[in-house]
Amino acid sequence: MTDTQDTKPDVLRNLERVGIVNLKTLIETNWKGSNYRFAPDIEITIDLEKDRKGIHMSRLIESITESVEEETRDPAKSIEEIEKKILENLSRKHPYNSGEVKMVLDFFVERQTPKTGKPTLEAHKAAVIVSKDEEGFSKRLWVRVLGNTSCPHSTQTCGKPHIQRAIGELTVEATIDSEINLEDMITVVEESFSSPVYTLLKTSDEVKVVEKMYANPKFVEDVVRGMLEKSQKRFKNCKIKAK
Question: Which pTM does this prediction carry?
Answer without folding.
Answer: 0.91
